[in-house]
């Protein structure tokens, strides 16, 4: 396949950026999207040009670091991570626009790489369990109702890629924060810090400058792990409960 790539290039956080056009030939439909970018970068390096910076790690769809906006969609046209997107989803002659996540709380570091440490700070505000429990208990010592276990597992699938923020017209992190809150609050081990966790994580989210949720629903549509929209409803309920308990 022969493709026209229009890629956001930005030398640094304080530098101006712009879309740059590249023609790339010989792209196999079996390539992953990141392998296609690797091919482009090999050519740029051979030409003495600066390769396109993009973030990645596992390339198995489990870490989320490869996030980018492809033709206006977070992670591209398939409901998966960019590293699991394959070039068979495109056609010969296609023009592909590739941009970084667009959100005030995700400043661009270089090209397609953004700083997502705001997510780390939200988790650091309460996305853990500190209540002393002694040594590791036997697996079945604490009975967890199946409904609660299913709810926890469903939300624990969040990989923190940021697609929800990139897809939201308000740049909201509600789905991410909700997944982390609901995951722990659904389990008996998370009960002792239920109220403080919810208050502190929501406060941290707001402090990072993410936008507000207006129930557009694009976050859940873009999520590669299928975190449901009703997780936000559950977090809102948890937050009101926490406020009542002070």
Give a brief description.
With 246 residues, the chain is α+β, with helices and mostly antiparallel strands. 35% of the residues lie in helices and 12% in strands. α3 runs antiparallel to α5, α5 (174-185) runs antiparallel to α6 (194-207) and α6 (194-207) packs across α8 (230-245).
List the main descriptive attributes of the protein structure presented here.
246 residues; alpha+beta; five-stranded mixed beta sheet; two-stranded antiparallel sheet; elongated
Can you describe what's shown?
By secondary structure, this protein is an alpha+beta fold. It has eight helices and seven strands, in the order ββαβββββααααααα. Strands 2-1-5-3-4 form a five-stranded mixed β-sheet. Helix 2 packs antiparallel against helix 6, helix 3 packs antiparallel against helix 5 and helix 5 (174-185) packs across helix 8 (230-245). The longest helix is centred in the last third of the chain and has 16 residues, at 230-245. It is elongated, with a radius of gyration of 20 Å. The chain starts with a strand and ends with a helix.
